[in-house]
UniProtKB/TrEMBL annotation:
This is Acyl-CoA dehydrogenase. SUPFAM superfamilies: Acyl-CoA dehydrogenase C-terminal domain-like, Acyl-CoA dehydrogenase NM domain-like. GO terms for molecular function: acyl-CoA dehydrogenase activity; flavin adenine dinucleotide binding. Residues 234-390 form the Acyl-CoA dehydrogenase/oxidase C-terminal domain. PROSITE patterns: ACYL_COA_DH_1, ACYL_COA_DH_2. Belongs to the acyl-CoA dehydrogenase family. InterPro entries: Acyl-CoA_DH_CS, Acyl-CoA_Oxase/DH_mid-dom, Acyl-CoA_Oxase/DH_mid-dom_sf, AcylCo_DH-like_C, AcylCo_DH/oxidase_C, AcylCoA_DH/ox_N, AcylCoA_DH/ox_N_sf, AcylCoA_DH/oxidase_NM_dom_sf. Its cofactor is FAD. Residues 10-119 form the Acyl-CoA dehydrogenase/oxidase N-terminal domain. It comes from Microlunatus endophyticus. Keywords: FAD, Flavoprotein, Oxidoreductase. Residues 125-221 form the Acyl-CoA oxidase/dehydrogenase middle domain. The gene is fadE19. Gene3D superfamilies: Acyl-CoA dehydrogenase/oxidase, N-terminal domain (1.10.540.10), Butyryl-CoA Dehydrogenase, subunit A, domain 2 (2.40.110.10), Butyryl-CoA Dehydrogenase, subunit A, domain 3 (1.20.140.10). It comes from the Bacteria.
Length: 395
């Protein structure tokens, strides 16, 4: 509902209504089935593409329109009914489109962005590896320039949107040499789907996000043209860090959708369920839990959309600077995602025994929430970044 958000201008309110209506008609009736079947909702992704959702923070010349605040609204509203589809959109934009839009050559942008922006294609970003997560700088995947080709060998894990029927490419980080200071030179390289030696392994059996597409990837002498290098050689890891702030705010928006879903589902149930002859919502124990959920939703909203407004201001050249935005992004990500995990626990408690039954959507939100504290930078990483922003020399 637009009136409950800190984003009060009419344009964004109208867009929120459009997204809420779409989520109610095209997502909510099917989300439980997609989850139970572990089925990627390709048709819904296509409809979101037609709605222009994947282009909300993309360059206009490649079909984009809108701003970062609109993208966060879209992710939040989708996330209120299906967290799996919400993360599909978040990853498609933040990890699929943004690296190419930000660092790609004109030729790379012209080749890949139109389909990605239209939602007819998806892209993944291969950073995490089997033996490194938060320490992404310890990349072991290697790429050697042999003639006019990069030959890639290694493995990636937990890669979203990497094996769908719409996936057209995965951008991967790889060691391409050694820097003068002895550290690894890490570059980003675009690997199209179907490249010989590039194998998308069977999907994970996950606790949650069942209809989101997530795979390990293997590269065995996978060769791509030299012009598939994305951005400057040796800057791959730095490039990823540069786009990660937007992803953190977008994940916080997804968490906000989860919190509001918990509040709304709990409120509805508390009005319908009776105990001792009265609705359970009339009991202080339940009423106070719902009040806490409302406070969490309100607080997360302020954090998410103040950070999103900073991003839009930076895009317009009027922002407070990247340092302030990075801090706001980490704070929003940390608080909103930890609130989301707490909110699902509270909501499940309100439902009592029914909160443990798969027939109720609260169980799906409960399973989906935990990963929010991990993906796009763990809570520990966010606290580390915030502490460093305070001037503390902490590792």
């Amino acid at each position: 509902m637009a009136e409950e958000s800190s984003v009060a201008d009419k344009e964004h309110q109208d867009f929120r209504t459009v997204m809420a209506d779409f989520a109610a008609a095209e997502v909510a009736p099917y989300a439980a089935g997609w989850d139970a079947e572990h089925r990627f909702p390709s048709e819904a992704v296509g409809k979101l593409g037609e709605l222009g959702v994947f282009g909300l923070h993309a360059p206009e010349e490649y079909g984009g329109a809108g701003d970062f605040t609109s993208l966060c609204i879209a992710i939040e509203e989708i996330g209120r009914v299906d967290q799996s589809l919400g993360i599909t959109v978040e990853a498609a934009v933040g990890l699929g489109i943004n690296p190419i839009a930000t660092f790609g050559t004109p030729e790379q942008k012209q080749r890949w962005l139109p389909d990605l922006v239209a939602g007819t294609a998806l892209a993944g970003f291969g950073l995490t590896e089997p033996e490194n997560g938060s320490d992404a700088g310890a990349t072991r995947t290697r790429a050697e320039l042999v003639g006019d080709q990069w030959v890639i060998t290694g493995a990636k894990q937990f890669i979203t949107n990497s094996g769908t029927d719409r996936t057209s490419l995965v951008t991967v980080t790889a060691r391409t040499g050694t820097r003068p200071d002895g550290r690894a030179e890490i570059s980003a390289i675009i690997v199209p789907t179907g490249t010989r030696g590039f194998t998308v392994e069977p999907a994970y059996d996950k606790l949650g996000w069942h209809s989101s597409d997530t795979h390990p990837l293997t590269f065995t002498d996978a060769a791509v043209p030299a012009d598939h290098l994305l951005g400057e050689r040796g800057r791959g890891y730095a490039q990823f860090l540069a786009i990660l702030d937007d992803g953190r705010v977008a994940i916080a928006a997804l968490a906000l959708g989860c919190i509001r879903a918990c509040r709304d589902l709990g409120l509805q149930y508390a009005g319908e369920r009776t105990a001792f002859g009265v609705p359970i919502g009339s009991k202080q124990a339940v009423a106070f839990q719902l009040a806490d959920l409302d406070v969490m939703a309100h607080t997360a909203d302020l954090l998410v959309y103040s950070a999103a407004a900073m991003r839009d201001a930076i895009d317009r050249g009027t922002g407070p600077g990247l340092k302030a935005y990075k801090r706001a992004a980490s704070i929003a990500k940390l608080q909103a995602t930890e609130y989301a995990v707490t909110a699902t626990r509270i909501a499940a408690q309100i439902f009592g025994g029914y909160g443990f039954m798969e027939e109720y959507p609260i169980t799906r939100f409960y399973r989906d929430a935990k990963i929010l504290e991990i993906g796009e930078g763990t809570s520990e990483v966010q606290r580390l970044l915030i502490a460093r922003g305070l001037g503390l020399d902490v590792e």
